[in-house]
Amino acid sequence: MIKNTAHCVLCEHSKKDFTTGAYCGLTNEKPKFSNKCSSKEFGNVLEKKVIEFNTEIELVKHTKAKTMLHVYTFLSFAAIVLIGDYFFTIRLWEKGWMSTITLVIGGVGLGLIPFSIAPLNKYKREMNVAVDRKNDLDAILKIYNYSYDIDIKLIKAPHNTVETEVDLTIRTN
Fold first, then answer.
1. Among 21, 27, 44, 99, which has the minimal tally of Cβ within 10 Å of its Cβ?
2. In Å, what is the CA distance from 77 to each residue of 72, 102, 105, 157?
3. Do 85 and 106 form a contact (C-beta atoms < 8 A)?
4. Tens digit of pLDDT for each residue in 28-83?
């Protein structure tokens, strides 16, 4: 269920306050409509939100390759360390030695596993948040019979940053 304040965030009449959050600028109250606001006015705010939410998804998608490279690289390191530790331990055992160094090396190998998975969890979390925000936006626009076409191009900029070019068309159905 979409909150009424989500409608206000897209409206030109919207106001925000740190204590109450988004509210209607016409009534100076939290919205009290049932499904649709009769006094909504979409314009620049809507365009900015459509661009923001859709760009957010594209920027998160852009990090997928780097994230997967990190995961596979550090999982490979972990496997190499654990397999090497296993053979090292067996070799020491055959010579009649037992050492805590093999436990430390094994601990390092196991410690690499959460380090490798953390960026994947971050990627999934950011993607879920971005998709949920876009789905809420699309659901609100569907209520008011609005739709849009958006074309987002990511452009590599200096200093490892990404700039965007956006072509947006908003239609009323």
1. 44
2. 9, 16, 12, 31
3. yes
4. 888 888 888 888 889 899 999 999 999 999 999 999 999 999 999 999 999 999 99
Q: Residue 95 — left, alpha, or beta (φ > 0 → left; ψ -120 to 50 → alpha)?
A: alpha
CA–CA distance, 11 with 86 (Å, rounded to integer): 62
Sign of torsion, CA 58 21 137 25? negative
Q: If you count DSSP H runs as helices and E runs as strands, how many of each does the chain have, helices first?
A: 4, 4
User: Tokens representing 12?
Assistant: 């030109």
Express each pLDDT in 95-111 by its tens digit: 988 889 999 999 999 99
Q: Is this model's pTM higher than 0.85 or not?
A: no
For 7-49, the DSSP string reads: HHHHSTTEEEETTTEEEETTTSS----SS--TT---SHHHHHH
